[in-house]
Each structure stands twice: as structure tokens, then as C-alpha cells.
Fold:
Amino acid sequence: MAVYAIGDIQGCYAELMNLLELIHFDPANDQVWFTGDLVNRGPASLQVLRAVRALGDSAITVLGNHDLHLLAVAEGHAPLHKGDTLDAILTAPDRDELLAWLRQQPLMHHDPALHTTLVHAGLPPQWDLAMAQACAKEVETVLRSDDYARFFQHMYGNQPEVWRDDLAGWDRLRFITNSFTRLRYCDATGHFDFKAKGEPGTQPEGYLPWFEIPGRRNENLRIVFGHWSTLGLRRERNIVSLDTGCLWGKQLTAVRLNRNATVFCVECSQHRHPGSGTSTMETTAR
Ligand SMILES: [Mn+2]
Structure:
């Protein structure tokens, strides 16, 4: 059995199909993890949602900020933003089934055999594995409850910006959600900065990528994540970042998680030259 992780798709359905073909993905034998943000901004979010759901147990996906935004918009708790491409889902005949399925997806997945953890964005430095799992479960429990719609009324916002064990109520759930789905930079004491979105080196003084915070309590885990297209593909110190900006005309990337760390990339089809191959492959043993 091969286990792969694929970065943020954001509605790039053609590239997803090309990548699954490139890795010879076999749903009967293989498993694929998705870093979340299946939808939005790209051209074919509805098709992506249907395709990933149809993979059934062979696919594991964690929720990203765009996935949560879709659910909030569908519940009437957020307006569509400029650049959103969610209309086809919202008006689809199978909309309710697709959204109900999406709402059941986790914020985090951990595979003990692979010593590997999947999140959309990151983890605060104060959380070890057990804490991260417990926090993910708090939000997942609300999302899976009958009362889930109220969550979206309180989800948006950048506060609180630092973890405290005694955070409670919506502030606690918002912080947890922001950690898993929006985090890029924080300072050594774990205060988040959501304004900085560029590549490392462009952030305000005193802030670091979350995975470079000295002594973070989750540094023993191999963490696979997406969300950060300006970071691109990085494999270092037990982190694998996979958002390679397919949406922005770059690539959609898969990495094999077991046996070796082979990397597979397909080019964004918008930049494909007629008559040339649609795929490129790089192999790098780790
Ligand atoms: Mn994201």
C-alpha cells in the first residue's frame, strides 16, 4: 500500500486528476491524504468535492480555511468574498450531501505507524500531540453536532492571538480553528500574526514560521501541511509543506509518505503548452 499526501487543490480538478494518474493511485490499495482547501478560487470546486468524497475510505482530508468558509457561506453566516468560486457548489443538486460530508471531516489526522500528522496550516508551539488531538476534537465535535451552524457565527476573527489553557467558549474554539487552518507566523511566545502571508524573510521582526519556533512541543512529529503557497514545497526538520500554488499557475504536488519520500508534481493546466506533456516528475530519495 502506498500512502501519499497532496497539497491544496482549491478547485483545480484537472490537475488533481492528472496527479492521481501520475502516481497511479489505486483506491483499492492506496491511501491519499489531502492538506485541505479542496475548494474555492479555482475553476472546478464542485468537481473536486465530488471526486474526493467518492474516494471514500482511501482518502483522508483535513479542513482548511476555505472549506470552513464554504460551510459558513452555505449556512448564511458569511458573505461570498470577491474571488470566491463557490456558486456551483451552493446551487448543486447534491449540495446538501456534499456539505454534510465536508462538515464531518477532521481538523487533524495522525498516523502512529507513519509517525506523521496532517493539518491544513500549523500547530501552536505550546501543543504536543495529545493536546493538539484534544483541541481538534473540541471543534470537530461542534461541527458534527446539530448545533454546528452557531459555530460559524463566531468563527471569524484574529483574537485571541495566543494560547492559554483556560481559554473558553467561542474564543477557545476560534483560536483552535485559527491554529489548524490559518497559522503561518508566530513569535517565540506563540503570539500569532495573521497579516504576514509572504515567504519566510518577509515577516515582521520577532516572528518566525510556526515550525521554526525553538522548543515547540510538537517538533518530534513529522507534520504535513499546506495553506502557505509562498512557502511552497519544503521538506526539512520533520515538516513537509505541500501548497505549491496550483491555483496561482504553479504546481499541484504529491509526496509519498511511506517507504520513501518521492515527490510528484503536475503543472497547472492553465500554463500548459498545447501538445506538450501535462506532467513533470521529480524523484528525490529522503
Ligand atoms: Mn488555506
